[in-house]
Amino acid sequence: MKHLITINQLTREEILSIINQAFSFKDINTRAIKKVPTLRGKTIVTCFYEASTRTRLSFEIAAKRLSADTINISKSGSSAEKGETLTDTVRNIQAMKVDLIVIRHPSSGAASFISKYLDCPVINAGDGINEHPSQALLDAMTIYEKRGSLDNLKILIVGDILHSRVARSNIYLLKKFNSEIKVFGPPMMLPKDIEKLGVSVIHDFKKTIQDVDVVMLLRVQMERQDRSLFPSVREYSKFFGFSYPMLDLIKEKCLIMHPGPINRGVELNHSAAESPSSVILDQVENGVAMRMTLMYLLLSKNLQES
What we know:
Layout: H1 12-28, E1 43-48, H2 54-65, E2 69-74, H3 86-95, E3 100-105, H4 110-115, E4 122-127, H5 133-147, E5 154-158, H6 165-175, E6 180-184, E7 200-201, H7 205-208, E8 214-217, H8 233-240, E9 255-257, H9 270-273, H10 280-305
Parallel strand pairs: 1-2, 1-3, 3-4, 5-6, 5-8, 6-7, 8-9
Helix pairs in contact: 1-5, 1-10, 2-10, 5-6, 5-10
């Protein structure tokens, strides 16, 4: 692959291959010296036009552990504030002979758009409400690590599905492994015709969680709403949040996941986030290894030619 824009460009076999490679890179992150010379001499630019902690830091750490030089660009302080178009920005960056660009942008389709103008690889780190492929891959890696397989699982995704690029990428990925995916959230936060993605909408949260293998909780993305889609945070938490008593309802090996950042007391409470079922910090850890893998694979052809 030249770019990583969408999960749909990957086959089931390619996803498993990427995950297996990521486990090899994860071993590097447990060493006393967490660095290898794999991408020494390569320059990776991360362009984040939205606020981010985990994803941005994860990509930067991943690049540094592969010995690449990293440069970060944000909208604040860049020429975008002077009116420069995204296309001109990335073409100017490429003219400086960088080797890979990671981009997060509030507009859906931004990563795909710029990839048509660039010769260097592009990784989509989240584009609007469209997709977040590296997050879905690290989530799949975490599930595979804990469950031993991605096949035929029962998955429940809860929360602001309408605005969630994480939900879309995970649905695309997990459907490739014949997973049964159900979604739950306020009706105004569910996309119209979401069933066309091969998922089903449930209405009884407490009953459904008793029979699933993974509960994936999502943050309410207030910044993407032009108006409030529910009366109050307290009401949302009461009807759609994962509360402490629910820990007694889930199966013993059920995984509790969240892409972050967590709004504790809203989509889940402290007890759930810190419970043995929670793999939230495992997701963060695996994110570094997965992004090391993606950078390596996208630049591997150039490495062989150099």
